[in-house]
Structure formats: structure tokens, C-alpha cells
Amino acid sequence: MKSRTKAWSLIAIILVSCIVMAYVDAVIRPNYAVKSVIKMLLFLTLPIGYALMGGGVPFR
């Protein structure tokens, strides 16, 4: 049960990142370099931070 909760938490983080990226793309409309930095921050640091804080990522 705990691994299922971890999986849903990771899915929620990625889903929120996608929503934030869609907002940035549609409303703010930054240039390519800024958009790339935002993507790196959202899609790399949030899951890595989750893995460090939560004790790993469930791959099973």
C-alpha cells in the first residue's frame, strides 16, 4: 500500500509540472531558453527532490 501511495505522489508531481508548463507555454510565452530552464527545473528537480525526501522512487 505504501508503494502505491508513493507512485501516486510521483504521478501527481509530474501532472502538476505538466499543468504549470502548459500555463507557462500558453500565458507567459517565454523564449526558448527560458522555457528550457523551466522544464529542467520542473521535470528534473521535483522528481529528484521527491526521491531524496521520500527515500527512493518505486519502480515495481
What would your notes on this structure say?
The protein has 60 residues and is an all-alpha fold. The protein contains two helices and no strands. It has helices spanning 2-28, 32-54. The longest helix is centred in the first third of the chain and has 27 residues, at 2-28. The chain is elongated.
* Element-by-element helix/strand order: HH
> Given the C-alpha coordinates, what overall shape results?
elongated
Tell me the β content. under 5%
**Total helical segments:** 2
Secondary structure: elements and pairs:
Layout: H1 2-28, H2 32-54
Helix pairs in contact: 1-2
Keywords:
single chain; 60 residues; mainly alpha; 2 helices; elongated
Compact description:
The protein is mostly helical and about 60 residues long.
